Amino acid sequence: MKKAAAFLSFLIFCLVPLAAHQSKDTVFAYPASFYTLREVYTNDTGTTRQTIDDAFSAAYADACSIPDTGDSLIAQAKCLWMYGGTYYAEGDTAQAENYYDQAMAVIEEASHYTQKAELYVVWAETISQAIMVKSKGFVLTEGLNQQKYAKIAWNMQNDYAPAIWIYNCQYVYMPAPFNNYKRALKEMTRIIEDPSIMKDDWDVYNAGSAIGYVYYAQKKWDKVIEWADFCLSYYPGNKFWITTRQEAVEKLASR
Fold it and tell me: Mean pLDDT for the chain?
């Protein structure tokens, strides 16, 4: 269970909705500084708190400067939950919860200004993060909302990798009998292989991470190593996959 929580806190991005399908020119554009924050968040081996703080400050300031109020709030919420995730990775759950709470408030405010797939992606991602540090009551109530928002995102833009990812995470990380590894592998592989899906390297990495988790849950250590290598080819400094790969190597050696 702890391993599943670690995957959820790191990946989630859940790494996204109303019945109308959005066209490809509606993909959400974050400021360039956000991608630096995302890099620091994901490629985290040896990353200092000062480096993280600087990346967050720059990204958050740029998010606040986006002219459109709804888009600005979406970008702010994304920065806030990601920053909270860096504290969670350090074991500081109080600070993590503080920033998750801020992200929840901001993304809810954003819903009064705009309705688009990325709004619901970020809302679902934020809940997925907050679940790691919140009470059981929060998990029961907001867990249902997480799936609701993920489904909205999926319905709104089902050729957008974050929407596919966030909707299908339930089939990866839910406990039996609610998971569906066969469907999860199919959808995550589609993100990686289908050229018609809108995605970037982080989306591909997230899909690979989900596949790796499925094999981890099944104790297929050779496949875990294969997918750890896949993830590390995108983010070679990712602490989680470095340690998980080593664990899988040791499991194989002990057979």
Answer: 89
What average pLDDT does the segment 34-49 reach?
94
- What's the CA angle centered on 208, arms 195 and 253, to 5 degrees? 145
Question: Which residues, including other chains, have CB under 8 Å from residue 43's CB and lie 6 or more apart?
Answer: 235, 236, 237, 238
Nearest to 8 by CA among 151, 98, 130, 167: 130
List the beta bridge partners of residue 198: 160
Whole-Å CA distances, 249 to 126, 228, 240: 33, 11, 14
CB atoms within 10 A of CB 140: 9
CA distance 63 to 255: 50
Length of the chain: 255
Q: In which residue are the tokens 């998971």 written?
A: 179
CA 13-88-110 angle, to 5 degrees, is 50
Give the separation between CA 229 and CA 248, rounded to whole angstroms: 12
Q: In the Cβ-directed half-sphere of 121, how many Cα atoms lie within 13 Å?
A: 26
Tokens at residue 45, please? 């081996």
Classified as helix, coil or strand, 184 is: helix
Q: Return the residue matching tokens 């860096």.
A: 86
Query: With 90 as the cut, is the pLDDT of residue 103 above it?
Result: yes
pTM: 0.86
What are the b/e assignments for 154-187, b being 16+ CB within 10 Å? Answer: bbbbeebbbbbbbbbbbbbbeeeeebbbeebbeb
pLDDT at 60: 98
> Is pLDDT above 50 for 192?
yes
